[in-house]
Amino acid sequence: MKATLARVGLLVASIDVETTPESHASDKGCSIKLPEPVFARMLSEAAGRLNLDLFVFSPAGYEPRTGQLSGYRLRSGGWTEELCPLPDIIYDRCFYRNTEERNACNAVLTAIRERKSVLTLNGSLPGKWEVYNTLRQDFILAPLLPHTTRLDRPDALLQQLKSHNKELFLKPSAGMQGKGALHLQQSLLTRQWIAAGRTRDNRPFRQRFDHYSGLAEWIGRFIGRASYIAQPYLQLTDPEGNPFDLRVLVQKTGKGRWGITGAVIRTGRSGSVTSNLHGGGTATKASEYLTRLFGAAKAEQIIHRIQQASLHAAERLENNYGRLAELGIDFGIEPDGRIWLLEVNAKPGRSSFQQSDDRSAEQMSVERPLRYARLLSQRFNNPLITNDSATGRIQSFFQGRRICSDNVQEVHP
């Protein structure tokens, strides 16, 4: 008898359906636009090779009254809309454009769980401020973290500017892709205040103010009700003045262990405050770029330290926040080689591997979540194993003890 395939549902915030048939049209005469089309296609192709049934769906495809789920499978090179069984594992790749999409994604996850016991492949992280406070409690990671404060009072900004030589870097606690980031400084020549950064739709800008009061009033409007954090502005630029950072992708392997999938340098345009690819940056293999800057020996040392810190951070965060499958961890490197851990992203992209022509890492970044999903499915279907634990330990081991669901790191022999 043929074994039942594990079903993986790739959840996205929205699927745009066009009524005019084009390439990739479904058999119902429509074509679709996915948020991550290349990634979704590579996932689906890899799932077939790994004997997994993968389909893409959004909250709009689920009917809570009947429990019917409409999704899209890759068939003969195109996406076909089909009725799909409820998944065994949900891979959450929702990127919300607004509060309504966030609420819809949360609602569909809750509704599906009420009908069927499902596993979420990748958990989530709280905002940057909470993650910072978690990591700074670790004596290994604390020295790598820039001093960070939360802008929760009207006078907090001025106090921080005075403390950091009138130059700060601000970013939204819940932001991503460099959107809403700000570099503040006071010109030594003109004494003007300068605010440079990116808008919420990722457009670069630069503003000048003759007085601090004007700057403060403008920042109040720019930030609005969003939660922001402040950090000292670090010299994270190459000799040409281009900002750059190093993104490490750490993922669970098919054995449930954390592993380094790849490392890429992202370089921003000269004068930009971010190196994010969505803001027009470029990507290069980390080893090549750092060797040009520091020489082979020092580059190897820097990469090794960053890899060790990345694996340690992944374990620390999973112990705090429950099961995670992958993390994108960003590091800054100063001209003298000092390393800073800047940010952690629970829904990392893959485009940097494609841009840097690292095909091996790109393919691995697609296959590893699926191999981990297959492992979780095997554990989930074993009656001796707890359905809601990330450990995979035998249920009887915990008799008489309360388990914190999905809140422990994988346990291996």
From TrEMBL:
One annotated GO molecular function: ATP binding
Annotated ATP-grasp domain residues: 132-377
SUPFAM superfamilies reported for this sequence: Glutathione synthetase ATP-binding domain-like
Sorted UniProt keywords: ATP-binding, Nucleotide-binding
Domain of life: Bacteria
Pfam families per the UniProt record, alphabetical: ATPgrasp_YheCD
InterPro entries: ATP-grasp, YheC/D
Organism field: Paenibacillus catalpae
Protein name: YheC/D like ATP-grasp
Gene3D superfamilies: ATP-grasp fold, B domain
